[in-house]
């Protein structure tokens, strides 16, 4: 038993996209045995837990988020025995394991859909005007003329959570994985399971419906009834020892509505996505940090920070370069609450923008031209030509040799070693993890906070070096400081005073 039931409150969690992380059998696809082989790397990195993106039986129409069997491992990734061995070894190394749960929709290859159990999905005689998040209509017609709802790809029919059989099934799925020792769940589309009564039209909108949150609710997102589901799940989580938890992927319209997902009778955490979407500017960061901290105060639970994941361009590219990415990371890791890292960000990997169209597998690409494949390119482990892979499922750029884990291992200035140093200090320093933030006066392009006791974090997002009279000892910097002690542009520093 790992102990500490509140471990999730200030944990650093590392997201593993299994297909792209590490390949143990040489078939070009990452697998659970590959993750198990790299647990030593993850322990040395200093993470508290790993979150495994879906590894369940799936036709892979949407990278595993189309689940055909919620209680088994797809042969691409291994077996249940491989999963059990991974959990056991992770726990031996002090690393907890979170798994993805996909409750809004199943695969159209799920036995329920194949058997024609339409009461467990959302069918109607005529479609309404709802659009898919992946582009195009959210409805597909079947042979008898009826239409089924899919907020994502047509191969991902939405489940009918008004049906008690669906609710009972997912309570059993939770117990199945908890019995196998998992420490928590990341709940996919946590805001999407309940649809407004009568499935009303959205009405005229400019742009894509999926992007139209604003101050109003969409009839298929963030409906009040979703909270009943989480109030059913929380006693199950609490009935297991060791601090089992759940984190919501919930895109909602206000801090008050996000706060409703988190609390002693619902889920433990909800991602702060606005931090991930912030511009690289002091004002933008401060705005989203203050908003997230307000959400935290509303529920008495810590904020859950994230800079990159499997759905968004990597923040090296999004923020405009490695220096900015390193600086943003030091800011995130100094904030109160937990932090979720995405595999490869510790290597400073950029988004791959030039993948051949014929190799792209994101279903959104076929409908909208937008693709998430560029952040899912396999991890370069070795500096040699094959990067530790044999014919990987997406090509690794030839230029990634210097970014490989092998190349960065013994370079004290590497991004990998910056992450290691930051996570080590985060564990050791009493000001990091939980606690409060005090804003310090600073120039307009500079963000400065203090964490009690005595840790000051400064980020310069401007175009000129800044000299601040803060005193104290520099514990860590995202880049070299000027000889006169000035903080260069695109640089963050942790100072003990």
TrEMBL record:
Species the sequence originates in: Nonomuraea angiospora
Superkingdom of origin: Bacteria
UniProt KW keywords: Glycosidase, Hydrolase
PANTHER family: ALPHA-AMYLASE FAMILY MEMBER, NEUTRAL AND BASIC AMINO ACID TRANSPORT PROTEIN RBAT
Single GO MF annotation: alpha-1,4-glucosidase activity
Span of domain Glycosyl hydrolase family 13 catalytic: 15-376
One Pfam family here: Alpha-amylase
UniProt family annotation: Belongs to the glycosyl hydrolase 13 family.
The keyword Hydrolase is annotated on this UniProt entry: yes
Gene3D superfamilies attached to this UniProt entry: Glycosidases, Oligo-1,6-glucosidase, Domain 2
Higher taxonomy: Bacteria, Bacillati, Actinomycetota, Actinomycetes, Streptosporangiales
Entry's EC annotation: 3.2.1.20
Name of this chain's protein: Alpha-glucosidase
Matches recorded under InterPro entries: GH, GH13_cat_dom, O16G_dom_2
């Amino acid at each position: 038993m790992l102990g500490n039931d509140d471990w999730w409150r200030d944990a650093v969690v590392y997201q593993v996209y299994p297909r792209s992380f590490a390949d143990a059998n040489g078939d070009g696809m990452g697998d659970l045995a590959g993750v198990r082989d790299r647990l030593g790397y993850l322990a040395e990195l200093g993470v508290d837990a790993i979150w495994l993106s879906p590894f369940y039986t799936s036709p892979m129409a949407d990278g595993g988020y189309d689940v055909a069997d919620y209680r088994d491992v797809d042969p691409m990734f291994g077996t249940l025995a491989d999963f059990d061995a991974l959990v056991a070894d992770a726990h031996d190394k002090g690393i907890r394991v979170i798994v993805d749960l996909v409750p809004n929709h199943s695969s159209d290859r799920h036995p329920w859909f194949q058997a024609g159990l339409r009461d467990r999905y959302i069918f109607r005689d005529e479609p309404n005007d709802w659009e898919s998040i992946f582009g195009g209509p959210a409805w597909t017609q079947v042979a008898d003329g009826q239409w089924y709802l899919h907020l994502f790809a047509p191969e991902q029919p939405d489940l009918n959570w008004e049906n008690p059989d669906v609710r009972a099934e997912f309570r059993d799925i939770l117990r199945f994985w908890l019995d196998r020792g998992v420490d928590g769940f990341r709940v996919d589309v946590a805001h999407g399971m309940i649809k407004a009564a009568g499935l009303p039209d959205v009405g005229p909108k400019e742009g894509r419906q999926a992007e139209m949150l604003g101050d109003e609710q969409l009839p298929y997102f963030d409906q009040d009834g979703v909270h009943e589901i989480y109030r059913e799940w929380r006693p199950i989580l609490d009935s297991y020892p060791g601090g089992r938890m759940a984190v919501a992927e919930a895109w909602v319209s206000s801090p008050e509505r996000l706060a409703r997902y988190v609390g002693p009778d619902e889920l433990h955490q909800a991602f702060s996505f606005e931090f991930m979407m912030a511009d690289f500017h002091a004002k933008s960061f401060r705005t989203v940090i203050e908003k997230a901290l307000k959400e935290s105060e509303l529920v008495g639970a810590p904020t859950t920070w994230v800079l990159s994941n499997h759905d968004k361009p990597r923040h090296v590219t999004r923020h405009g370069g490695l220096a900015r990415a390193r600086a943003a990371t030091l800011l995130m890791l100094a904030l109160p609450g937990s932090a979720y890292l995405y595999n490869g960000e510790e290597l400073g990997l950029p988004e791959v923008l030039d993948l051949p169209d014929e190799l792209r597998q994101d279903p959104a690409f076929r409908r909208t031209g937008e693709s998430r494949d560029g952040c899912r390119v396999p991890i370069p482990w070795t500096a040699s030509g094959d990067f530790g892979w044999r014919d990987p499922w997406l090509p690794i750029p030839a230029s990634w040799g210097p970014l490989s884990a092998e190349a960065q291992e013994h370079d004290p200035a590497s991004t990998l070693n910056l992450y290691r140093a930051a996570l080590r200090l985060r564990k050791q320093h009493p000001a990091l993890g939980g606690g409060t933030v005090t804003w310090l006066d600073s120039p307009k392009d500079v963000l400065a906070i203090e964490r009690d006791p005595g840790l000051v974090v400064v980020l310069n997002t401007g175009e000129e070096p800044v000299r601040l009279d803060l005193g104290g000892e520099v514990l860590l910097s995202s880049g070299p400081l000027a000889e006169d002690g000035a903080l260069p542009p695109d640089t963050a520093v942790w100072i003990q005073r």
